[in-house]
Design brief:
9 strands, six-stranded parallel β-sheet, Lipopolysaccharide biosynthesis protein, 38% helix, 12% strand, single chain, three-stranded parallel β-sheet, alpha/beta, Rossmann fold
Length: 291
């Protein structure tokens, strides 16, 4: 490609393996691709910082383009009207690979704490992976549904339809594809303060960030949404405002990067905006930061 003057630009979802991932050939291939590339599109500031630290990548050879909602996998007709549902949110969802860094044990600890206070609470767990480390905890907990298998794309709308709140109890993270899937379905999220989750989650707008990476902290943040229907509705409504222009913003940034000379001056990443929020919503502890 370089012989004809073309530049090689790669999109980086993860610049390094997550804890517990042992497929080293993938990391070797990824490092090789990164060394060969002329430029990089990263999906969060966090992954950009990992890329710079691991490969000493100049900041002007990358651009940050956060993903918009994965609307192709959700029933978006429901998302806009969900705020009118008067039923209190009681259905928690964990979705995705079951691997140590995803923190399922933290969620089970949080659920056990919450179940005492909210007897009508339920938890659905959908994803492939080894459940044996969690079997004892799962056997003790009521109202937990487990589908321990690979989830096909056609199953996603039904899974999201039967949830009120998505929990991301991760011990480590890049950016979360589960979060943008939840956004497409109009579902608020509660996540831990790790990786790019603190970029993607805007407290009081599309969900809440726990005070720490623990079951106790997760339970406290989940309880805020369970106890405050108005806050929950604001998050449902806020998702659409946050997400509506993100794909267009990402496209503009990527096209500008590709059509330029291969480098871009460092600029601020795309940011969530609370401009359309009412006075009461602006009083919430919003974080105006990159997704």
């Amino acid at each position: 490609m370089r012989k004809v003057g073309a530049r090689y630009v790669v999109t980086i979802h993860d610049a390094a393996l997550h804890p517990g991932e042992c497929f080293m050939p993938y990391q070797w291939w990824l490092d090789w691709e990164i060394r060969r590339a002329d430029g990089y599109v990263v999906l969060s500031d966090h992954v950009g910082s990992v890329l710079r630290a691991r490969h000493h990548t100049p900041a002007d050879r990358m651009t940050v383009a956060p993903s918009g909602p994965f609307s192709q996998f959700a029933d978006t007709r429901r998302a806009g009207g969900k705020a009118c549902d008067a039923r209190p949110p009681r259905r928690l969802l964990f979705f995705g690979r079951i691997i140590a860094y995803k923190g399922l044990d933290l969620l089970l600890d949080a659920y056990a704490r919450l179940k005492v206070r909210y007897p009508d609470l339920s938890l659905a767990i959908h994803g492939a992976g080894d459940l044996s480390p969690y079997k004892a905890a799962l056997d003790r907990l009521p109202d937990v549904k487990v589908e321990n298998r690979y989830i096909a794309e056609e199953d996603l709308p039904g899974i999201l339809e039967n949830a009120d709140l998505v929990v991301l109890p991760y011990r480590e993270a890049s950016q979360s594809g589960v979060l943008v899937l939840a956004e497409a379905a109009g579902l608020p999220v509660v996540g831990t303060p790790t990786g790019a989750l603190v970029e993607q989650i805007v407290p009081g707008v599309n969900g809440l960030i726990a005070a720490g990476v623990s079951g106790e902290a997760l339970a406290a943040s989940i309880a805020k949404l369970l106890d405050d229907p108005a806050l929950y509705r604001r998050c449902v409504e806020g998702i659409a405002h946050n997400a509506e222009d993100r794909w267009a913003e990402a496209g503009d940034r990527i096209s500008g990067f590709l059509l330029g000379d291969g480098t871009v001056a460092p600029v601020a990443s795309p940011r969530y905006s609370a401009a359309s929020m009412s006075g009461a919503e602006r009083a919430l502890p919003l974080r105006r930061q990159a997704r």
